[in-house]
Every structure is written in structure tokens, then in C-alpha cells.
Design goal:
The chain has helices spanning 7-14, 20-23, 89-94, 106-117, 133-136, 140-143, and strands at residues 5-6, 29-31, 37-47, 51-58, 67-71, 76-78, 81-83. The chain is of the alpha+beta class.
Length: 276
Amino acid sequence: MTVLTPLSELVRDHNYDLGQAQTSLIGLPAYGAGGEQVGSVRDAMTENGGTIRYLLVEAGSWFTRKEVLVPVGLARIEDDAVYFDTLTKDQVRDLQAYSAGEMHSDEAQVSDLRVLKGTDYQAPATTGVAARAADHYQDQSLFRTPDRLQLLEERLQVNKDRYRAGSVEVGKHVETRTENVNVNLSHDEVVIERHPVSDPRPVDGNVTLGSDSETIRVDLEAERANVQKQAYVTEEVEVGKRTESEQRTFTETVGKEVLDVNKTGDVDTDDTSGRH
């Protein structure tokens, strides 16, 4: 029986370092034929100490709570997603459901391969009467690991949010001052004119001095100031706000994945990237 081991288990329990390009597949959205979303990649299933054979796909967009194993050779990886261009909804329906931790038998694997390739599909080189999953692993159309290695680079992304930086209250109060106003006021004054008689003349009749005293009353008028205060509009104030922008520089450390090529033995590599 071919034993399949989850990639996440190798990394967790056996400290395998399989590289970012392989472990980053886990969690990517998965799309089937016609670009329709199937669900997401939950894990990768390995055989023989780390060779990826299947991708464990959670098909929640098509079927409720169903996980299936899809041969890795059917996967196309780009734009932060995994595309199975030939995988149809009917095929996912007919694939064996997989549960975490279970043994996926050779019979179940071969049954799945015939769902994907047709009922008459045979292994490239059958070694026995009973078909084994390992016999089919030679089929590069199904089990060839994607060549594309994605190098990741961190870039700064700045999001802006508004916060209350302060407030301004505009009100008014009364300031007093002493003001002098000059006003011309008029008033009456008594003018008494006395004219001596140059040619005294006698008074007719008998007159006793002091017996007929007369008093002349003259009313005098004067102006007085009636001071009142009147409010006037001397200034209008409009309160609003405007947005000013300023350029500020923020510094952060970012990382970049760089390709490492380790040579063993007498091996030549052809690096066409122009970097050494």
C-alpha cells in the first residue's frame, strides 16, 4: 500500500524544510474548469519522504464539507491561487471523500484517477495484476510537480485613517472700555438790563413806596444729555475647516526571498536571470 503523509505533518513533526514555494500552497484558493472557485487548498499529500503527489482540496464552494485529493500535476499555480483547469464539478462529486488521518488506499487512489482520466485509464507500466497507486506516479500529466517557483518580496503598504487631533472652540465675551462723548448742551440765562432815566418824571396820583410791589417771574430752560447705548454689528465670523496635507516619511524593514542554488557534484546551471 502506498502511504500518503500530509505535508504539514512532515514540517510539524519531522522538522522537514521543504521551502516556501511548497508550503505556501496551503491556504490558497482553488479554481476549477471555467475559472469557477472550488474551495481552497487545505494541505498537500506526500509520498516517499516528501514528494508531493496530491493536493488536498476543500470543495466547500461546490459541496458541503467535502475534501478530495487532486493529483498535483493538474495544478497550475499563479497569482496567489491554484487552478485546476480540467477539473469539473462532476469529477469532484465522483472523487472519494478524504478525511484527515485516514489511510487512502491504492484502490481509492486508482478509482479517483479513472474518474479524472476515464474508466479505461491504465498505469504507464503496470507491474502486477492489481493496479497500485505507485504505478501511476510515472504519469507526468498527473503527478509532475509544478516547476514554477515563486519568490516573494515584502513591500510596504500604507493605509491612512483619520483620528481626532484636537478641537477648536469659538465663542465670544464682553470687553468694556470707557468712552468719552462731547455733547453741546444749551441753557437759558436771565439777562437784566437797567436803564437810568435821564429826565425823571413824576408818577401820577398818590403813590406810597412799597405799597404795590410787583414780581416778574422768568422760567429758564436748559438742555440735558440722555445717554443710551446701542449695539452695532462690527464684524462677522464664519467658522469652518480645511484639510491640509503634509508629506511624512516612515521607515520599516521589509524582506525579500532570494533564490538559493546548492550544487552537489559536477553540475552546471544556466541562470538566465542576469544575477550572480
